Amino acid sequence: MAIGEATFPEMHTVAGFKLGVASAGIKRPGRRDVVVMEAQAGSTVAGVFTTNAFCAAPVTLCKERLAQGQPRFFVTNTGNANACTGLPGRENASRVCQSVASLCGTEESLVLPFSTGVIGEPLPVEKILAVLPEAVKSLSEHEWENAAHGILTTDTRPKGASVCFEYQGERIVVSGIAKGSGMIKPNMATMLGYVATNAKVAQPLLQAMLREATDRSFNRITVDGDTSTNDSGVLIATGGTGLAELSEARGEYYEQLKSAIIEVHQSLAKAIVSDGEGATKFVTVDVVGAREKSDATKVAYAVAHSPLIKTALFASDPNWGRIVAAIGYAGVANLNADSVRVHLGDVLIVEDGGRAASYTEAQGQAVMNEPYITIRIDLGMGSAHDTVWTTDLSYDYVKINADYRS
Asked: Which SS3 state, helix, strand or coil, does residue 355 take?
């Protein structure tokens, strides 16, 4: 089950970036589940990774290799997370990287591994190694959609986003794919995300741009409040244009590129929420009037994570008392309940410490019946604000996760 249109967007190719796909049958025969990506020599790479203490073996390797240099190859498998697998898991991830390096004529240290799927199971290395030649052989700048399919787990549809703009006669492209449906409360990025641009960007600036884009996208979504062991996001700049390298966070070109990168990340993040496990509602929690942004974030996540609110959303039940309860326990110091105003869509439901005089159940019901819902909360304390995107909590979420390993 998913919300909204399922059409995969037109993807602009990124000069100097290729993708290849193969099927190893890791979880199901015939399913695309191995993806290799290649960035041309001279590319710069930035990465963000999970803060989960039980981070997967591939995450550990990615962090180490990014700290040592600029990788050029990225290999992903689905169906197995290679997480909580100890030293054997690290060795298995390294074996996959060694194979990619051998096939592509490069050093192992220039290959980053990514995995997603069941936690605690040994990585089926032999299955992956057997199809890597096929994935490498299929490398092409046009394989975005196939690669988007190849990184999915419980997702019901592939997720992609692509934008382009012109600057000084050059066409600048930003394209990306992501996967994520459950175990989504990224604390750095999404489950897996890959975004590439043909711009030439110095690595420190690229890392800063990725961090800002992540904080405004993947770090503002939640399906179930669970942070994965494998969350990884990378931003690759191939330098496939004739423009000079960007190295400072200023100027028209920088602002346009940053805006495009943020747009792609936010589109991918919203696509993850729309495809949340069992989701029937896409919910925007918009908190304004906070003293500090951190207070707005606390309130937004308190509402977005509340099982009572999420189940009411699934039932299309305008039980607004659950919303104010979550606001109250969010941990905002010196919150004055009488100053808080809450809107459900365009309908004012709470003011002056109680139900708004103008509110009717029919108004609330009309909003709750829609697939896209906005909960807007004004704390009446200042000018800071934040937004989180989330879903409802349905019967299907329980079914999907109860049957996940079967």
From this structure: strand
81 has a pLDDT exceeding 70? yes
3-class DSSP string for 247-304: CCCCCHHHHHHHHHHHHHHHHHHHHHHHCCCCCCCEEEEEEEEECCHHHHHHHHHHHH
Residue 110 CB coordination number (10 Å): 20
Q: Active-site residue among 44, 50, 190, 214?
A: 190
Residues 80 and 86 sit within 8 Å (Cβ to Cβ): no
More confident residue, 53 or 5: 53
Instruction: Write the single-letter amino acid at 55.
Output: C
Q: What is the CA angle 138-37-150, rounded to 5?
A: 70
Of 352, 374, 366, nearest to 300 (Cα)?
A: 374
User: Which residues neighbour 401 within 8 Å (Cβ) at sequence distance 6 or greater?
Assistant: 182, 277
The full set of domains in the chain, from first to last, is 17-274 (3.60.70.12), 282-402 (3.10.20.340)
Longest Cα–Cα distance of the chain, Å, equals 71
- 355 alpha carbon, distance to own chain's centre: 36
Residue that has been written with the tokens 């600029």 in this structure: 70
Report pTM.
0.94
- CB-side neighbour CA atoms (13 Å) of 309: 26
Phi, psi dihedral angles at 377 (to 5 degrees): -120, 125
What's the alpha-carbon Rg for the chain, to the nearest Å? 22
Contact status, residue 128 vs residue 95, Cβ threshold 8 Å: no
Contacts of 130 (CB under 8 A, 6+ apart): 24
- The tally of CA atoms less than 13 A away on the side-chain side of residue 331 is 7
**Alpha-carbon distance 127 to 162, whole Å?**
32
Strand ranges in 314-371 using DSSP code E only, listed in sequence order: 341-344, 347-351, 354-355
- Average pLDDT on 116-129 reads 95
154 assigned to active site: no
Q: Per-residue pLDDT for 276 more than 80?
A: yes
Using CA atoms, how far residue 169 sits from 13, 165, 172, 212, 243, in Å, is 18, 10, 9, 27, 10
For residue 211 the two structure tokens come to 């961090």
Residue where the block lists tokens 């199971």 = 121
Nearest residue to 313 via CA among 353, 278, 355, 357: 278
Cβ 214 vs Cβ 262: under 8 Å: no
